[in-house]
Amino acid sequence: MPFLTRRQFMGTAGVAAIAAGVVALRPSAQGAPHDAYFAKLSQALRVAGIATPTMVLDLARVRANADHVRQHVQGRLQLRLVNKSLPSLPLLDELSQRTGTQRQMVFNLPYLQLLAQARPQSDVLLGKPLPAAAAAQFYARRPSSGFEPSRQLQWLVDTPERLAQYRDLARGQQQRLRINIEIDVGLHRGGVPDVTTLQTMLRLIEQEPLLEWSGLMGYDAHTEKIPEVAGVRSRARDHAKQVYRQMVEHLQHSPLKAALAQATLNTGGSPTFKLHDGSEAANEVAVGSVMVKPSDFDSDLLSEMQPAAFIATPVLKTGPFAAPDGVGALSDVVSAWDANQRQSAFIYGGNWMAHPISPQGLSASGLMGASSNQQILLGSGRQQLKPDDFVFLRPTQSEAVLQQFGDIAVYDQGRITDRWPVFPAQA
User: Which H or E run contains 357?
Assistant: First the structure.
């Protein structure tokens, strides 16, 4: 047998090294069956006879999250619950009782009407400026519950022009309107940009007996979307607080100074409530989504909060992954290369604003895409899924998603203890 030359030897060794490198890049098989938590949750769903896509709420986790929020704000800030992110009266009742607040933030006319009728003890702040015509519809269908808008409702107004519209509404309805002014603390989603504009609006309110200034709202969620590079995020946080402080300082030297003691000075939401401790100008935060902590709210700031809402959906079919005719060869190549794309599970429904969380190691098919009917999820087979098993997905947000499945299945102490109705889906 001839000996290899040095050049031949080096060439062969190079090919071998490249091959070894390629093999090293090959994805290893991942995944595992449900852990103890999700196995127990699966069993609870089976015992309850649930066999369709369902939103499941872990009540113990919700309560723990609520306790964490309450402990942070207690004695320092007022707390307002955001009902678009918690769109169920029993859920809101649970959180209201747990945190000791009747304050709610509402973002649309149907939910305002529902809340005013069903929970007349509520103190309500609009979370966005509604067209004056929408506000007029509220007064055209006044709640019969005893809810008194002149005391319990604050309309959010963002510009002098919209304020003039609300003034005209107040005159037309002969109805006293409480006006909370939206200020821009850096999000640049609208709102009063400077003290001069604020002054203009305050003068308009002072000149109209049917308008009452009730506070400010400056939402600062943008600060947590900014990368922490060279202190940029910290400067954005400080700037938001500084802008708010400047607005309040102006009010301290205005005819409305006396009203500041009772004013609603709202700021942080779910992403940022922990940045506020009552030592700055604002005196209230509004919290919603983080009570159930969808994945969009994963951050270091919220690391102590627990995910509490999951979509549970049955598996309809399982088997080796096979792409449709015409691209079968491609699927063979992909499956041979990536062990995590060899087994398929078709679930009941899909295409939700959510991602698979249990069993571990499942992912959507890049080839097949999403489906709202029978979405395919791929894995290594280590998940050991079979038809009628449950797959759990974690929502990316709570608003809208919590309403897609009808009544919420309440999970507590190892079983499904209740079914909570949700608000009708409304813009």
Answer: strand 354-358
Strand 211-217 with 363-364, pairing:
unpaired
Q: Looking at residue 29, what is its pLDDT?
A: 85
Ramachandran angles phi, psi of 411, nearest 5°: -105, 125
Whether residue 297 contacts residue 272, with contact meaning beta carbons closer than 8 Å, is answered with no
Structure tokens belonging to residue 165: 């519209």
Residues listed for the chain: 427
Average pLDDT in the 353-360 region?
Answer: 98
- Taken in order 355, 361, 367, 368, is the CA torsion positive or negative? negative
pTM of the model as a whole: 0.91
Report all structural domains of the chain as residue ranges with CATH numbers, in order of start.
33-54+307-420 (2.40.37), 59-291 (3.20.20.10)
Q: Does 330 have pLDDT greater than 90?
A: no
Which residues, at least 6 apart from 19, have a Cβ–Cβ distance to it below 8 Å? none
Q: Per residue in 23-60, pLDDT tens?
A: 556 788 899 999 999 999 999 999 999 999 999 999 99
What does the CA dihedral 181, 254, 164, 198 come to, rounded to 10 degrees? -50
Q: How confident is the model at residue 323 (pLDDT cuts 50, 70, 90)?
A: confident
The secondary structure of 58-91 as a DSSP string is EHHHHHHHHHHHHHHHTTT-EEEEETTTS--HHH
The whole-angstrom separation of Cα 36 and Cα 242 is 47
Could you identify the residue written with the tokens 């922490």? 228
Of 410 and 28, the structure prediction assigns the larger pLDDT to 410
What does the DSSP assignment read for 261-322? GG-EEE---TTTGGG--SSSS--EEEE-GGGT--GGG-SGGGTTS---EEEEEEEEEEEE--
Is there a contact between 88 and 406 (Cβ–Cβ < 8 Å)?
no
Q: What angle do CA 54, 60, 62 make, to 5 degrees?
A: 70
3-class state of residue 423 by DSSP: coil
The helices-and-strands tally (H runs, E runs) of the chain is 11, 17
User: Which amino acid would we find at residue 249?
Assistant: E
Max distance between CA atoms of the chain, in angstroms, equals 107
Confidence bin at 7 (pLDDT 50/70/90): low
